[in-house]
Design brief:
By secondary structure, the chain is an alpha/beta fold. The protein folds into 3 domains: 51 residues, 434 Repressor (Amino-terminal Domain) (Orthogonal Bundle); 127 residues, Rossmann fold (3-Layer(aba) Sandwich); 132 residues, Response regulator (Rossmann fold), CATH 3.40.50. 41% of the residues lie in helices and 16% in strands. The chain is built from 12 helices and 12 strands. A 6-stranded parallel β-sheet has the order 2-1-3-4-5-11, sandwiched between helices. Strands 7-6-8-9-10-12 form a 6-stranded mixed β-sheet, sandwiched between helices. Helix 5 links the parallel strand 1 and strand 2. Helix 1 crosses helix 2, helix 1 packs across helix 3 and helix 6 packs parallel to helix 7. The protein is elongated, with a radius of gyration of 27 Å.
């Protein structure tokens, strides 16, 4: 690979001059900087990041740790964060954990080994103690999920509010038995969303059994499909469904399509998130849209600001930002169908 020595030999200058020119050192003239950078481009020079860091140049890498990049929530986060940090000459290193704590530990060790500038993490439900220890030395912020022992700085969704809003919409339409299909409560987001659903039922003055629940792994579309079929197989099935994750929503919509359910005549559905296909699905999906791009952008801007103003030390004051969702009403929700029973024949008719 081309080195700074090769550039120095081509221009007949010292290696230190080349290094300073590439680092935009004010002691080097604009003309020399131009010649050095032009020659570096011609020779295909790539900076040795490790060597630069040994010379005291801070890292420009931000680690992004997510459970599943196939989930559009996290792919949107990755895109928005990349755009945000690129504007400050930083770059994102993406790590996927599969929601497994040992995989998360390996990813955090690798990020620590390359001395990343900071980390944005969607933590597993129970991070390994070594993850907590390693992150104590790295400026980091939690995104979407929050667990104890990590940074008190957090950006996320008002999880309680979004499912409460979705459920109240169905209650206002007259539904009195509503199913909730969401993630397990060992993850805080799952617990908050379930809480919003149950609080809406309670606030409507209805008994708890009016809200039926089926929980599972939040990233499994198959659970969403299976849960819908289970709930609708009951002797007295719910007349409406609320979902608590994007992937669960996809599973519910797939099952409804495969089983040719008449939505909303047979069952009303309120989804979670607003994928491009949701507005095209069937009659159009009523759903709670999430400000994912804005959330990730704000998180990235905040972290970069902390790195620029406090360096490697964490901001002393805990910071938390919960973004609300927006209910988008389309054709998948309506008043519950009235079951009409044939009238008894009169004695005269007999």
């Amino acid at each position: 690979m081309t080195t700074t020595r090769d550039i120095a030999a081509r221009l007949n200058v010292s290696v230190s001059t080349v290094g300073r020119a590439l680092a935009d050192d004010p002691r080097i003239s604009a003309e020399t900087k131009f010649r050095v950078k032009q020659t570096a481009d011609e020779l295909g020079y790539v900076a040795n990041r490790a060597a630069r860091m040994m010379r005291g140049v801070p890292s420009t890498v931000i680690g992004l740790v997510v459970p599943d990049v196939r989930n559009s929530f996290y792919s949107t986060v990755a895109h928005a964060l990349t755009e945000t940090v690129r504007s400050r000459d930083h770059q994102v290193m993406l790590c996927e954990t599969g929601d497994e704590r040992e995989t998360e530990l390996r990813q955090i060790r690798d990020l620590a080994a390359v001395q990343v500038a900071g980390v944005v993490i969607v933590p597993t439900p129970r991070p390994h103690p070594d993850v907590r220890r390693l992150l104590q030395a790295i400026p980091h912020v939690q995104l979407n999920r929050r667990v104890s022992g990590l940074s008190p700085h957090w950006f996320g969704i008002d999880d309680h509010g979004v499912t409460r809003t979705a459920t109240r919409h169905l209650l206002d339409l007259g539904h009195r038995k509503i199913g909730y299909i969401g993630g397990t409560v060992d993850i805080r987001t799952g617990a908050e969303r379930l809480g919003g659903f149950r609080d809406a039922i309670s606030e409507a003055g209805l008994p708890v059994e009016c809200g039926v629940v089926d929980l599972g792994p939040p990233s499994q579309t198959t659970h969403g499909a299976d849960a819908l079929r289970r709930l609708l197989s009951w002797a007295e099935p719910p007349t409406a469904i609320v979902t608590g994750t994007v992937q669960m929503t996809v599973g519910v919509l797939a099952a409804a399509h495969e089983d040719r359910l008449a939505v909303p005549r047979s069952v009303s559905v309120v989804g979670f998130g607003d994928e491009p296909g949701f507005s095209w699905w069937g009659p159009g999906l009523t759903t709670v849209a999430l400000p994912i791009h804005e959330l990730a952008t704000a998180c990235g801007v905040w972290l970069l600001h902390q790195l620029e103003t406090t360096g490697a030390t964490a901001h002393p004051t805990a910071f938390a930002s919960a973004s609300p969702g927006t209910l988008i009403v389309r054709g998948s929700t309506a008043e519950p169908a009235v079951v009409r029973r044939p009238a008894r024949a009169s004695r005269a008719a007999r």
